[in-house]
Amino acid sequence: MPLSDTQIRGLRPRPSPQKFSDGGGLHILVSPQGSKLWRLSYRFGAKQKTIALGPYPVVTLAEARLKRDEAKRLLRNGTDPSHHAKIEKIRAQIATATTFGAVADAFLSKVEREGKAPATLTKKRWLIDLVRPDLGDRPIADISAIEVLATLRTVEAKGNYETARRMRATVSQVFRYAIATSAASNDPTFGLRGALISPTVTHRAAVTDAKAFGGLLRAVWHYPGAETTRIALQLMALLYPRPGELRLAEWHEFDLEKATWTIPARRTKMRREHRKPLPTAAVSLLRELHALTGRGLLAFPAVHTTRRPLSENTMNAALRRAGITKDEATSHGFRATASTLLNESGLWLADAIEAELGHVGADEVRKAYHRAIYWDERVRMAEWWVAEITRLRSEN
Prior knowledge:
Blueprint: H1 5-9, E1 18-23, E2 26-30, E3 36-44, E4 47-56, H2 61-76, H3 81-97, H4 100-113, H5 118-135, H6 145-156, H7 161-180, H8 210-221, H9 227-239, H10 243-247, E5 254-255, E6 260-263, E7 274-277, H11 280-293, H12 312-321, H13 333-345, H14 350-357, H15 364-372, H16 375-394
Antiparallel strand pairs: 1-2, 2-3, 3-4, 5-6, 6-7
């Protein structure tokens, strides 16, 4: 006789286990402790087997019968229900281990081991954390494009178009890592490239007119604030590195006798060591700076502590104090100024200028060419640039 819910609820434990059949091999086992457990007995091959279907009432009578019917279907197709259950359990475990959050954490760990800059890691973690509430616990292989888009839309709706764009790019990196590690088979963000509102690009302010640059230089050379900040701005003008390359510089990177500055790969945008020639004026400034900060590791420590470097905000604030507005110039803008005026001079090969800026493509031969063949030209160009800066400073 098939069981009923009323009958099952009325079953009471006894000193030994009791088995009550519902038909077709399905039965409920009542333990001496009072638990009621669904079991299914069947034959596969020449063996008698039993599998657990879960406890009652978590698994209802109707659900237990559905599981029995599914097991019968598997048997008709030549599949052992017990083996099938084990495979499904493994799949569930894999799905749990390969959630978007778990894969994202593995991706971030990989990026960190690759030696990416702390600022890059911080930005990627922040962008990934923005999508964790919606996608973090989802098996990454099951995430669809519409799910990702819905998450991006919430950020976009606040007017944060650039953040939404960067989120899509970072989520795509996580999916590509998942594909490479067999956790997913496709990147659903690929089709979303045209779905988001394009942000208005705001370029960093930079002076590209020679006469205006002369005015900026005079303001920098007469900066009334901290000596270390003044020297930092002057070196930005003379050497035009990326602000982070200069701010985070450590004294061991400078060889003042050989007039070279070797920026380590971990701090360059291209993630390769970048060697720059130091013109005489830059060596003099660094010797002046060494008298101020040479006892520590950092060439440009923060004003109130030697443990942290000078911030880019400090340099930009110094420009504001010198009377240069944020719409006129930023510390990063010295790079655009140098690139423009050096190219306009017509005296230097474009590749030599690109090499000095640290703009190097993927071609290994071209990289070697930049480093070796153009070095002498870059040394001459560095001294010419100092002379040009001196000339522009003296003109009204």
